[in-house]
Amino acid sequence: MPQSRPSGGTNGKPGRSVQESPAELTGPAAPQGAGVPPPEHGLPVAPPHPGLGSAWWWLGAHGGAGVSTLERAVPGGLDAGRAWPVSAAPQRVVLVARSGANGIRAAQLAARQWASGAVTGVELLGLVVVADAPGRRPAVLRDKVRLVSGAVPRLWEIPWVEQWRLGESPLAHLPKECAPLARDLTRLTRPV
Questions:
Q1: Stretch (H or E) spanning 69
Q2: How far is residue 159's CA from residue 162's CA, in Å, rounded to a whole number?
Q3: CA angle, 138 as apex, 126 and 95 as ends, to 5°?
Q4: Residue 129 near residue 108 (C-beta atoms within 8 A)
């Protein structure tokens, strides 16, 4: 299988992107377990909200990651409430983080928590990195996103949308990168 590479971190204007090859892996599809130590501090684990069924859960790696915006822009997923949704049935989860240094670090810690096997009953579908500013991402942050993308099954990047910042409806201003994200998540969560 050809190896997919994360985009160059151009906030939605990729040269080569996982978005060109829907749902191809950028990293491991399952936790690695014993070889990966869990982070000292991870996201909490909680049962999913009772009575709410969703195809997947959006899990913000930190506050302000963009979960509520993605929940409206890409229907099908629900906000996990900043906790890994763990129950008897496997739960599909998409991590969400902003592209700033703190957001990427939070995504890295959450990915390590999953990779260590500390979170059971979760099928991690991938990571969505939401641009924290307009324009091209600095090289150091592009490198960090590339590094973290190797720790999660898939990477999607959503560019800066000024109208979202101003509180306008995500549906009224969908960047083209939301289409492959929605398509991939629909394919990944479709019953077999």
A1: helix 67-73
A2: 10
A3: 15
A4: no
